[in-house]
């Protein structure tokens, strides 16, 4: 079930799109909380293990934060001047230094994190919209988390970070396989949840004071899009696939 961020007052257009201000002031890059530690020994964990769910959610949110910033930079949704080069996963990345934009991304992922902990998320989608708020591109992160597995600290951290690095590298060069977007684009974030997560979404909205709404057809549908696979990973703790849906005629 797709949900759309509906934050009011911070964005351009309806449904609380992400901020699109002309003047950009410097701000601090976002720093998600610590991912936690697990024993170096091989351990069997279930989805009900709170620590395990939190660690996986932290890893994913930290990655998604970097990925969203990089997508906005590569696809030129915001001026290049608001981004600064940083290093993540041992590769250079571009992170926004605009406080309002950073806060929007942080608040979005802060609400997604409890759903990831409960394995209620099927997809996280970064949607780039034209001036009429119609989707021109969707960066789709399909996420699958196994309910039972054996992991060690090495497989959890080192191996997974290597795989996530490959995603970042693919995003950084994705403009080579995508057409230019029309000027004046904005973006929003869609979260596709399992049916059982509806009640959790309602609780999160109350606790986090960051409203979400069910996405309507205009936010979700793209007529006859071109599908561009970017990267797939399989690890002990999760499987993830990234692909782009691109509108055939972006100028129309």
TrEMBL record:
Q: Specify where the region named Disordered lies, as residue ranges.
A: 1-40
Alphabetical keyword list: DNA damage, Nucleus
Instruction: Show the GO cellular component annotation of the record.
Output: nucleus; zeta DNA polymerase complex
The domain of life for this entry's organism is Eukaryota
The HORMA domain is annotated at 54-244
Q: DNA damage as a keyword? A: yes
Instruction: Give the GO terms filed under biological process for this record.
Output: DNA damage response; regulation of epithelial to mesenchymal transition
Protein's cellular compartments: Nucleus
Can the keyword DNA damage be found in this entry's annotation?
yes
Record Gene3D superfamilies: HORMA domain
Q: Which SUPFAM superfamilies match?
A: The spindle assembly checkpoint protein mad2
Q: What is this protein called?
A: Mitotic spindle assembly checkpoint protein MAD2B
* Source organism: Bos indicus x Bos taurus
- Please state the gene responsible for encoding this protein: MAD2L2
């Amino acid at each position: 079930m797709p949900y759309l961020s509906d934050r009011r007052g911070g964005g351009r257009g309806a449904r609380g799109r992400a901020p699109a201000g002309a003047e950009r002031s410097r701000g601090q890059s976002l720093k998600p909380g610590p991912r936690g530690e697990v024993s170096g020994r091989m351990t069997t964990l279930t989805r009900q293990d709170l620590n395990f769910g939190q660690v996986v959610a932290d890893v994913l949110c930290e990655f998604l934060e970097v990925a969203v910033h990089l997508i906005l930079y590569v696809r030129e949704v915001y001026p290049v001047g608001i981004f600064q080069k940083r290093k993540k996963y041992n590769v250079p990345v571009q992170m926004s230094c605009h406080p309002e934009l950073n806060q929007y991304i942080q608040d979005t992922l802060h609400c997604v994190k409890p759903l990831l902990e409960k394995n209620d998320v099927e997809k996280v989608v970064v949607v780039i919209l034209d001036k009429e708020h119609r989707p021109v591109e969707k960066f789709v992160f399909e996420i699958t988390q196994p309910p039972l597995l054996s992991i060690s600290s090495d497989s959890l951290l080192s191996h997974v970070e290597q795989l996530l690095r490959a995603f970042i590298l693919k995003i950084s060069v994705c403009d080579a396989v995508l057409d230019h977007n029309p000027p004046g684009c904005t973006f929003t974030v869609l979260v596709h949840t399992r049916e059982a997560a509806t009640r959790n979404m309602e609780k999160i909205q109350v606790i986090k004071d960051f409203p979400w709404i069910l996405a309507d057809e205009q936010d979700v549908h793209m007529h006859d899009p071109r599908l561009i696979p970017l990267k797939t990973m399989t690890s002990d703790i999760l499987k993830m696939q990234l692909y782009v849906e691109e509108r055939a005629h972006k100028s129309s």
